[in-house]
Amino acid sequence: MLTTSLHQADILSKGEDYHFSRSVLSRTRPKALHDQDYYELFWLHNGRARLVTEATRLALSEGDLVFISPGLPHALQGQGEESHIVNLILRRKRVRELIERFPEVSQYFPGAGAIPVQVRRDIRQMAQLSTAAKTLEASPRTALFLEAFLLPLIAGLALEARETTEAMPLWLSDALVRVEEPAVFRDGAAGLVAQCGKAHAHVARTMQNCLGQTPSDYVNRLRMDYAARRLKGTPDSLAEIATDIGLQNMSHFHRLFRARFGMTPRQYRVKYQKGVVQPV
């Protein structure tokens, strides 16, 4: 897919530190991605959408808040009925100054080209966000009012993340480290549960409460990310890779991979190993 570039100098006037907009997303499939030299955050006010990058497709729904760093080619596509987003374009210098003063900000605005940070907001949190956004929308576009919006938002998110981590039992956090190994995730959800030393139902309830994911969802994400690295960096056949991640059913492998990256394993390999002859 083609990539174009957007520049903050073309969007922000002199003296402006942010741009605020509300819009309805087009449902037309994007013909090109765009990268940018500014930071950005947006949230889906209602409806559903898809965030498209070179490597993946992120499904978004009402209440999803997304942080994007410079240098990541991407595009947004509405899905279903009208999808309304609120969008903030942030001057690069201001965000970097915030990161220097408050290193926690980098959790949400990581380095150039990093994958988007996606955070889910419930109805109450969305109402708070909307109230703060109305104040920001009516304010002068200066660093003072930008910080007055960003710092409480990011401080709240950081506190939520800390509470979630602290609430996670040690047996689960230890198991999540061990399940990163292929020898463990090759056995699927059963491999993760075995590392926990608890009943499957108890592990599933705890993971849902702490992470909002099932053991299968968590392990399959690890499997697909590992498969993507193999497809990108080795000549190993698709069958070999599927077997190594514990998936004997190739159709199932293809379904999981497409759900994660928006393309088949073969398409992913062609995209990232252009000009290299690969095995079938």
TrEMBL record:
UniProt KW keywords: Activator, DNA-binding, Transcription, Transcription regulation
UniProt protein name: AraC family transcriptional regulator
InterPro entries cross-referenced by the UniProt entry: AraC-bd (IPR003313), AraC_XylS_family_regulators (IPR050204), Homeodomain-like_sf (IPR009057), HTH_AraC (IPR018060), HTH_AraC-typ_CS (IPR018062), RmlC-like_jellyroll (IPR014710), RmlC_Cupin_sf (IPR011051), Tscrpt_reg_AraC-type_HTH (IPR020449)
Annotated ranges, domain HTH araC/xylS-type: 192-271
Origin organism lineage: Bacteria, Pseudomonadati, Pseudomonadota, Alphaproteobacteria, Rhodobacterales
A GO term for molecular function: sequence-specific DNA binding
Keyword Membrane in annotation: no
Gene3D superfamilies the UniProt entry points to: Homeodomain-like, Jelly Rolls
Recorded coiled-coil stretches: none
